[in-house]
Amino acid sequence: MESIVLTINGKKISCQEGTSVFEAAAKNGIHIPSLCYHPDLKPYGACRLCLVEDEKTGRLFASCVTPAARDMVIQTDTPRVLDHRRNIIRLMMAEHPESCIVCNKGNRCQLRRIAADLGVGENDLYPMPNYRSFEQLNPFIVRDLSKCILCGKCIRADHELVCTGAIDYNLRGFRSRPATAHETPLEHSNCTFCGTCVSICPTGALSPKNAWYAGTPERQASSICGFCGIGCALDIGISGNKIVEINPADLEETVNRATLCVRGHFAHDFLNSPDRLTAPMVKSTGENEEPAFNEASWDEAVEHVISRLSDIKRTYGPQSIAFIGSTKCSIEENYLFQKIGRAIFQSENIINMASQNSGAQLMALDQKTGGSCRVNRLSDLEKAPAIVVLGPDPDHAAPVLGYHIKRAAKKGATLIVIDPLPNDLSLFAGQWIRPELSKNPNFSLTSLINGIAAELVARNGHATEFIENHTLDGNAYTEGLNAQDPEAIAGLAAVTREDLKTAASLLEGKKTAFVVGHTAGQSISEAGFNALFNLSLLTGSQGGKGTGIYLMTEAGNGMGAFDMGVSPDRLPGRHAISDESGRIPLEKAWKTKISPDPGLSMLRLIEAAENGTLKAVYIMGENPLRKLPQPRRVKNALKKLDFMVVQDILCNQTVKLADVILPGAAFTEKAGAFTNMEGRIQNFAPIVSPPGQALPDWEILALLASKMGYPEKYTTIEQVKQEIRRLVPMHADLGSHRQGWLKNNGLESGFRFNFSPVDIPGPEPAPPDPNFPYTGIIRGLRYHLGCGTRTSRSERIQSFQLRGQIEISPEDSQRLDLSEADRLRLTSPFGQIERGFRINTDMTVGQIFIPLAYNQNDAMNLVDLCESPTSGAPGWMVCRVKIEKNETSGEMP
Amino acid sequence: MEPKAIDWDQLHVIIDKHRYQKWGLIPLLQEVQEVFGYIPPASIEPIARAMKMFPTCIQGVITFYAGFSLKPKGRYVIRVCRGTACHVKGGRSILRMMKKELELEEGETSPDYQFTLETVACLGACFLAPTMMVNKNYYGKLTPPKVISILNQYRKPKPTESSSPAKEADDGR
To answer: Interhelix angle for B8-18 vs B44-51, to 10°?
Structure first.
């Protein structure tokens, strides 16, 4: 690309060919006003405010859509230009309602800003406001299109960044307005309420609905979203000590750029929930009276915890205590937490609720790639030639990841979606493989992946050169694939052979990105993951930029919690606990012995509580009662414990069982860092103070450690960071700067990837139980994250009136003779729930969709509490159910 | 009275004809408009799916062009010219009279779907001012009696002369 020299306002400027005059000026500190320009959107030239004058020709043109040319001589604010700009603003103001004093946009209105800069006040034009219907029935977005200036930013953000297509211009001329399909209100359109349009709107036409605050927040600060594993950068508006508004942060190189999702944008009002814990509480142990919680001072509460835990350790041994860490707490807190567990209490039972599924995948990937693929940037994903999506719908589970995939597909990447349920990405997909789980109860995802691989080899579409130069055992693997019976494989994959062939033809010769997720603890099995890794080698995708395997993590710091060793079999830095090379340096640093045996898995933990070998649990920021399958069993197990400490921010079901409650702080109230699914370490700082006496979680842990007489004192978060940097080389980038990256291991020259042997699932003769004829697929919707402990406390999400209806095909609805108001009782071999329903024409017969996180997440009653997924298990949470109409009860209270 | 039900098979034939054509959307919509007399709103989604576009974009195109309509139009679409030359020659009075005769406002369609009254900026036949069009036929140098006689040509036979309401519905468009 050539460099061009031009003159702007008498200043010689050089820029790259293809840069617009506007951008060339902006890069050199020359400000040109504009209402429709946004760096992430294609230039559009709608507002005409960026008019500049070409000195040579005297021509006026919109600088945002004019490419800079050699030897241009541009003036940006001659009297003539200013006069034109003023007139444009005057015309806009004449059409704009004079409601600035009550406008939500307040002082951040760009129209008002530019009018002020140009000295346009009273404009002497006949006011002609174009009144439109005011829309605010949904709890998220207020639309007052009379304030719309037709800059098209909302529409372009929707089409170019979010790729949902909820709105577009309707009509033309004066009547033109952004509109939904059939001009329905937003809540009846396909709008996902990501709020990207709200943040990008320069005027008050789109504003967030907020019942407790209007106008400009007192101050703003940036932070990192605490919901899913994407880690979006937020710009948080604060008033007093309350968070009143959230927007995407306007910073360099954020993962989300100008976008957010409905959770990030609107669900953070849970931070102001009345359910927040504000003081340490100790359960009274009085005789013959109802147990009650009494407020205690921090010293009393922590000392109580220490004395009880020490007693239990002395009486029953260290393995009678378990520590459940949190994927919502920071890297530093998780580090301290497992250190307290391992070094002070000598317990092996350190776990986080995601360690068994996403953690296992993470480890497998790390091992297979020699630690060279810890960083997978989502910005690179947009450059991948082909993408295969597997597991939950990213558009719901991690919406910003969904946006990246859709953008890639729009740019021409081949997209294959493997999903039994209707998927928001399927509109963009070259192929949507929908296994019909109802037809084959022995469905095997491993077979599906192996089937695609076999067809790829059959048509000679695999990356032979890559396999020869960078892998071992390539031949054994392809032979293994060829040994399979293609029809049987397609049968096990519950698809047709044609599906597999099409997929292979689409992937032929393309380096591919595989995006893998998991739902509510259900992830792709080890065999499935091996098959997927094999396929990634077969397509030559490993080691490339933007290709290979992208693992979704469910919660904000899922990766960080795992990397800090909050896992029964891993130490900080992803070292296997049995591996001396990782253990000994830590033993030295911590001046203690670490047991080389792995601790209990989640299931074994519950079993140990049931049979009485586990006596105490310390839970930090987790709600197992809502998250795990079979909540009643989990509750009974936890009730048997002698002692339970829960450190959390919200009063949830688990908190109510605790003996001591320690109120922690949310991410906006403390300092720390999260690692997102890309391997990006992002720091955040406190921007408001915790409610009441609540303390940042790391301070609570530091208090506990110091009261235990532990020599190391942690008085600042920086001390913890330093210790992590020293002991975990992978996290050398964890510092005080805004973001860093995990360190990849450099590969030795001559490193070769290994193919795993082809795993052919044996014929499992488990005929479907005729009593449970339907296949229920459980997963989350975009309005809730995971089990919904936090999102269900968001006032706005609550008032959106989603009732978690199951979705069912029209044929099944007819067969069951359902009418609209019916409530359905779903029974699986493990439990029963009651839900309303909705007919979805995109559902396949025999399959139903059960949304997670509603009614205290009762869907978890339908599945069994079991070990990590077995061979052949899909990345979807599946249960066999029976559906009956519930004639007795009416609407649930 | 309801407009005629949409013939979905016919719609899909039209969609299939244009779906792989380059810049096929406008010709597709034109054909739908031509065949159905309007673009049924319910056809937006199938068209969007076939063209791999967002439904809102299809709707944006439809509402942008005056030639497309999302509402069923009458059997005869009357376009009265409101251009300068016609205005000077009394086009406004012609429109006023038309409104009174048809009992319709601009843009409205009669309940029996016989007439739709529209105005246009110029029909390009200023030498015939004041002018109007009925479907594809031009009428120029209009006078009140001439307008009445033209309208009578297109009016339905009086209900007394028609045989049954069912037949009338058949003639609907």
So the answer is: 30
